[in-house]
Predict the structure of non-specific serine/threonine protein kinase.
Amino acid sequence: MASTKDPSGRIFYESTACIAVMLFRVTLGLKSSTSIEGTGMVPAPSSAEETLIHILDDARTSGFIETMCECLTASGSSVISGSSNMVPAACEACKSIWYFIEALEIISIKGQKYIFPLNFSRHLSLSQPDSRIRDQGPILGTEAVETIDMVGKLFLGSKAIQIAIYYCFHNGQESALQAALQLMSRICLSNHSVCDILCGMPNSSIAIDGLEIGGDGTVVSDMFSILSLCAPYLNKDSGEIRNQKCKLSNPRSLVLHCCLALATITYCLESRGKFSASYVLTNSQKKQRTRLSVLAHLSSSDDRVASSIQPHSASAMLALSWLLSLESAETGKSMMCETALTVFPPMGTLRSLLKLWLSDVQESMANINGLLLNWHGIRDVCVGLLEARLKWGGPLTIEQACSNGMPQLLIYSLADGLRKDVAEENSDAKDRIGLSPVGVVWALSSLCHCFSGGAFREVLFKKECMKLITDLTSDVHLKMLRNWKGLGGGDRGVADLINAVVDLLAFPFVAVQSSSNMPLASASINSGFVLNIGSPGGRMGAENKEMIKTIETNMPQYVQILREIRVPECILQGLDFIDSKDIARPIAFVAKMVGYRPLALQLLREGLLNSSRVRRLLGGSIPKEAVLDFLMIISDLARMSKDFYEPIYEGGLLDFLKEYITNEDPDLRSKACTAIGNMCRHSSYFYSLLATHKIIDLLIVRCADPDRRTRKFACFAVGNAAYHNDVLYEQLRRSIPQLTKLLLSAEEDKTKANAAGALSNLVRNSNILCEDIVSQGAMKALLKLVSDYYVAALSPSRGGAINESPLKIVLFSLCKMCEHAICKRFLRSSEFFPILTQLRSSPDSTIAEYASGIIARASEA
Ligand SMILES: *[C@@H]1O[C@H](CO)[C@@H](O)[C@H](O)[C@H]1NC(C)=O
Ligand SMILES: *[C@@H]1O[C@H](CO)[C@@H](O)[C@H](O)[C@H]1NC(C)=O
Ligand SMILES: *[C@@H]1O[C@H](CO)[C@@H](O)[C@H](O)[C@H]1NC(C)=O
Ligand SMILES: *[C@@H]1O[C@H](CO)[C@@H](O)[C@H](O)[C@H]1NC(C)=O
């Protein structure tokens, strides 16, 4: 098959075409034999089928794929050297490869009913709760998968093959296009980096210098040309082909596969962190508009009043949804989104589509040729568009959605055919397969967007709705999802689902965060911060005051519901399924829940601080914000009650705290100090433990930390470590010079107050440190502070400023010290003593009282 012997490419072409025809017949034969059964049983193959399988076996053993890829290589090489003679043969080779894979797929999924993880998990948990997860719907036979992987590898590794495929798109006939599109969709999913090549990223081989990404000369550009070519053939009114002289035999199918390929490419780009639709739509606004418009046109090119949604329209909606989902919320609404929204179907249309889908469209879609189409979630129809619309459309769109009853429809779609109590109108629909994994995430996200339009009332305070949502994180569903090979499955699918559920459940917590009278607001102002920025609850502004008030009032009820449906348990179980890099949002949600005692108790009961979990979380490489939130969780629990001390100890937190207290990141150091401080707040439980873990010395060093917050909280922790008894006094002796220094330097008032408070605790339980207190100048420093503040303290008009200042705590500290003889002696001889006499007449009664107390004690013998 060397091209040197066949310069015209004729022989080459004839032989590959012959193989293609043969394999095409095989797929037809297999298809017709499988469509007869449809019983769900796997029958013994008929003799005709055996013959077909035999042909495939022959192909396999003779190294068929390798040979076809050699054809592609030869063809691509000849293109590179300037001849296009081999292009027709490349098209036939491409077709042959595709038919071969298609045949393997047909065999491997034969007899299996198609079930999405959602329906599967519900069906399973309802009927046979403990049956094993064995039959997980069509997972491709390993042979089909292996073949796809192999082609993918060869494609990635060979510039010539890439060029050959590009020319199949560029010059090919319809059958070659069909084949190439399906092949590309599959190898993209098998290795996501294939999408770079199809878009013409700088390092892909097709890309010529200066080529625009997604622009002319790339495969995606050709895909849009195909769509533009097909669009006029699809009549808007009747769905019939208008142009009788149509050169395309099946424009619908071409559009379908083209859109699915685009959706797949976009999905892969997203998973590679390429968050911009311009990778597919180019940077040219004109091209963007044209491409978005053709997709929008195809989305609506069937008659909506009719009772069916056509697969090609559904696939165009899917591609549009994916493209929009590439635009990142963090960088704000782009021009692209603006453009897209103008071509989107209006809300009323989306509602009709969703209703249609809920009534019977699944039936009509069920017969789409090729079960694997379901990998893409083509059956979700318009849920993705709705999500994009809500995400980018602003408050007005959300209002429209709510007044169109979308929240209820979304609940129905999630409940589809399952719970009669929730989805009463639709309970008669029987053989429905519900939402795909991607559809579930889109539906949840859409619902959450609707909350800020008031829809939270219909969902969050209804136990059965909430149960429906939390059931999505059941063991069975998550396992199914992890094994799902299509779009929206795998580890990433699990993370997306859990994050969507978390956003939804966290909505009330986030919405009320601004209110100051919620529990622990001052301590956890930053906990769960990742949720505050990314989720709809965080966008509730001043205009939603009434709603925030309602949520606030109903918070106890909400907490009760979360407890009853065991949300803490669900989330903790979810953590075990999720990759540590994706853990930030669920941990942030836990951090929010911990602020409410009933939820905190349940979280602990369900093993939040189980040592193996703690080790898995903190011992692994989790994102910094998750570590911060975990430290906040420890802090909040410790602060709440001494009942939580033992679980904190048993969770093995001390070793981690010791590590974080010396971490190079100041945020972690300061949070670790705060946690330790709270762990010493209610009792001396941790005192000896801190000593044996050698944490006290590290804490003292932190009082001189370069970071101001770390200094502040280190003083707080040192103070609490000295409060309950004098067990740690010897170790804390070294802190006296550090604390003194802070009193005298330019520090925040709060830090000085903490330092003064710590000093008072160091004389509270015994006098063994009094000598150091005097000799290290701590008393002198305290008196110096008194002199700095006393003018303000005597002036009646400046009471406010005094309340902020550390003066009171400084006086309190001096008063404590005066219980010890050595301190008394020092005070009496101090040059500042007369100032204290004056302070007895301060208009602030507390100050006056402390000053009198000091004088009285100091005057005693
Ligand atoms: C995908 O292809 C790239 C480049 O050829 C390779 O480095 C990577 O390991 C492949 N990934 C998988 C999952 O096979
Ligand atoms: C892309 O190509 C450049 C130059 O050929 C090379 O230096 C760089 O490492 C490549 N990048 C990747 C991601 O392959
Ligand atoms: C889910 O799958 C089961 C099992 O195949 C099927 O009987 C049922 O009709 C499907 N639909 C729903 C909504 O449960
Ligand atoms: C902690 O979790 C592990 C695994 O989930 C479990 O085996 C163990 O019993 C749990 N330990 C405690 C103390 O709850």
